[in-house]
Every structure is written in C-alpha cells, then in structure tokens.
Amino acid sequence: MEAVLGHLRAAIERGAYAVGDKLPSEAELCRSLEVSRPVLREALRALQTMGLTVSRTGKGTFVVANTVEDPTFGDYAASDLLEVRRHVEIPVAGYAAVRRTPEDLDHLAHLLERMEQETDTTSWVALDTLFHLAVAQAAQNPVFRRVIEEIRDALARQSAFLNELGGRREQSNREHRAIVEALMDGSEPDAVEAMAHHLDRVETTLTDIVRPVRAASSPEGGTDA
Predict the structure, then answer these.
(1) In terms of Cα–Cα distance, which of 112, 148, 157 is closest to 131?
(2) 47, 76, 121, 213: which could join 53 in a potential S-S bond, CB 3.0 to 4.6 Å?
(3) Strand 60-63 vs strand 53-56: parallel, antiparallel, or unpaired?
(4) What is the pLDDT of residue 165?
(5) Is 11 in contact with 224 (CB distance < 8 Å)?
(6) For 51-89, how does the pLDDT look when each residue is reduced to its tens digit (9 = 90+)?
C-alpha cells in the first residue's frame, strides 16, 4: 500500500495528474499498478486524508491539491488536533500522576499489556484510544475525559494513519510504557515529560509522512499510471 500511495502521490506532486483531474478508475489503476482493489482503496483513502484528492460518489476520485499541507482526521485538521492535545494531554498526565487510583493503574497496565501483544492495526488503534481515555480518567476530572471523548474518532484516524504509513506501533508502545511507569511512580514531572515526548514523536512522524515525495518510484511490477 505504501508503494502505491507513494507512486500516486508523486504523480500528483509532479503534475502528471493536475488539480481538477480525475484519477483513472479503480479497475484501470489496479491493472496498471498490478495491485488488488483493497490495497488500492487503502492508498486512495490515504491520499484523501492528506488532502490531495476527494472522492465523489458515482463520479470517481479527483485531484484537489498538488501538495500536502495539513492532513484531516475526521472533523479536525492535524495541526488543530495536535495543538489541543498538547494543551490538554500533557497537563492531564501530570494530574493523573498525583491523582490516579490503584484501579486506574491496573486498567492502564492491562491496556498496555494488550497493546504490546496486539498485532492487528485496527485492534491496536482501538486500544490506543482507550489508553488515552484511561489517562484522562486517572486525572479525576470528568471534563478532561469529555474532551478526549470529543476527539476520540480523530485520534483513532490519526493513529491508524501513523501506524500504516509511519510504522509507529512499537515506538508508541514504548512511549506509552514510559507514561504508565511515570504514573505508577506518582511523578508529575516524569509524566508530563513522557506525554510531551509522545506527542513530539507523533508530530515528527506526521511531518515525515507529509513531506513531498516527488522522486517516488512505481510499485514493483507496476507501470506508470
């Protein structure tokens, strides 16, 4: 999927498909790139998340931009989502370190264990959102949890995007473990630092993904679309 996405994105960025152009049909792309329809559809969804294309029911997929500026996850732009997460989740981690209950710690440890054992991306993403909700719950302020609930869908979409295109799962697990260990130690500074580091890595991976890929090559076995 990454190869197909890279190929199509590079074609858009170099102008092979101009803004306003309709991409070839799924059948045509599957034939020319020699990939299955599910793989192609994943790549097309990623293009749309990046803001490069839009899918119009019954009409096809159209190019709407030739550079990636700010991916959208659900109802929220990535930059807006990250800004809010920094202002909410970093202090929330600090509050959680001093307010968490034994039950909170048990729940977080259980989620962390499941995440470290999970190999399916969809299941891992679901656990990831539960983990961040659990940290908010441990802060013992229902408003914090309500805020995370509001952006839950966007968090899940962003998490799936970063894991599929940025290989974030193992790194995220290590970052989540550092957060849990800080909460177990009851260390507010360590919890704040661990959450800040986690969000820094999210931003870095996102930046790496959206950086232009003008030199991307065709998928192995495929031809230029």
Answers:
(1) 112
(2) 47
(3) antiparallel
(4) 79
(5) yes
(6) 888 888 888 999 988 888 888 898 999 999 999 999 999
